[in-house]
Design goal:
By secondary structure, this protein is α/β, with parallel strands linked by helices. Helix content is 40%, strand content 16%. The protein is built from 17 helices and eleven strands. The strands form two sheets. The chain has a seven-stranded mixed β-sheet. A four-stranded parallel β-sheet has the order 9-8-10-11. The two termini are 31 Å apart.
Length: 379
């Protein structure tokens, strides 16, 4: 496995004038480091831009203008980003992917399709910081070696891969484990469409299949909502009391057993039953054991709505055990069911970098050891 990090500089925030990259082995040993200057065939506009910080590039404008234009480097860049058995990294890499996309469109070249991992999102996820952070600021925070030059693309590419290595070192995980535990940092550029994992339903389902805790609570909710809208019966509808009915589970079950919820929504579709998260519109509600054992203690819950339906609808409440009996399943059988899928859109192709299943998020593992994630990067 090789790790490839790249960075792009532009003459005006849009048009490429420099492409740099670093290739390392799995130990982060540098195998190759290179930088191309590219004639943007556009004016430079990087100084005196109102509220934006001035950007001083390493090379002179004359050097860029004397270089070949983007088509001369197209095949080299495309081959680099298509290197077999490799992982592509970049810091805030969506911007770089957009620069490549727009350059290809400008010169009427085929798209450069590649999968990527965003080091900025990796850091944001595991540092507990809400704001995006630049490579310059990361030098001090993570005590990385100061680059020889700023705004020189190969030096920034090197800083990016050093950041990934430092995160792995601090958290004591491999690159593959880090990426598996943060699938939202993964994305792809395909047919001029740039997308991060979790932005589409198929990616979220795939992330849950690899790691049940891969998604944030908000994305878990979105995944359940979207899947319940798109799910289709697998074969002929099974005759039962669930036919043409509406149902939902407790919020506790959705949040803590999202993967199982998705599987059961597929089962419900096979029974001709619609999963609807608005309890007041439902015929059935599957309560958690905690809800059934603590009647009347919590307010504004789905269980309370099911008990006190003001529109006269009689919502029948099941225990989870009773519900499994209705759909002819056991808890063990549910766990062994394959994760359902939806039809994959042409633009949503992506690679999931994984060496195996991980049972919990990295944050959960660290908290279990009494480690405060938010302090790891301030030592």
């Amino acid at each position: 496995m090789k790790y490839i990090s790249f960075d792009i500089e532009c003459c005006d925030g849009k048009h490429i004038c420099e492409f740099g990259y670093v290739i390392t082995d799995e130990s982060f040993k540098i195998l190759k480091k290179k930088c191309f200057t590219i004639n943007p065939n556009k004016p430079f506009n990087l100084i005196g831009r109102g509220n934006r910080v001035d950007c001083i590039l390493f090379f002179s404008e004359e050097t860029y203008y004397q270089s070949p234009e983007f088509p001369s480097f197209y095949s080299t860049i495309k081959d680099l980003l298509s290197t077999p058995d490799s992982i592509i990294f970049g810091h805030a890499i969506k911007s770089d992917a957009i620069f490549l996309r727009d350059a290809c469109k400008r010169y009427r070249l085929p798209p450069i399709n590649f999968q990527f991992v965003d080091s900025q999102l990796l850091y944001k996820e595991f540092s507990g910081k809400k704001d995006n952070i630049s490579l310059e600021n990361l030098e001090n925070i993570l005590k990385l070696e100061q680059p020889q030059f700023h705004h020189k693309s190969d030096e920034d590419a090197l800083l990016t891969i050093e950041l990934v290595g430092k995160i792995c070192e601090k958290l004591n995980v491999t690159v593959q484990e880090l990426i598996t535990l943060c699938p939202n940092a993964c994305g792809n550029s395909h047919n001029f469409n740039i997308q991060y994992a979790g932005d589409d339903l198929q990616s979220m389902l795939k992330a849950l299949e690899i790691n049940p805790n891969a998604l944030s609570q908000n994305k878990k909710k979105i995944c359940i909502q979207n899947f319940s809208k798109e799910v289709q019966p697998q074969g002929k509808i099974i005759d039962s009391c669930l036919n043409s009915k509406k149902i939902c589970f407790s919020i506790f079950f959705e949040k803590n057993y999202t993967k199982e919820t998705i599987k059961l929504i597929q089962i419900l579709a096979n029974y001709g039953c619609e999963y609807n998260m608005k309890v007041s519109e439902n015929d059935y509600y599957v309560a958690s054991d905690e809800e059934l054992a603590n009647v009347g203690q919590e307010k504004n819950t789905r269980y309370e709505v099911a008990l006190n339906n003001n529109d006269g609808r009689n919502v029948k409440i099941f225990s989870f055990a009773d519900f499994l009996e209705i759909v002819n399943l056991t808890a063990d059988a549910l766990g062994k069911l394959s994760m359902p899928t939806v039809k994959k859109q042409e633009s949503s192709r992506k690679r999931v970098y994984s060496t195996g299943n991980v049972s919990s998020t990295l944050g959960d593992q660290l908290r279990a050891k009494g480690i405060d994630i938010t302090k790891l990067f301030n030592e």
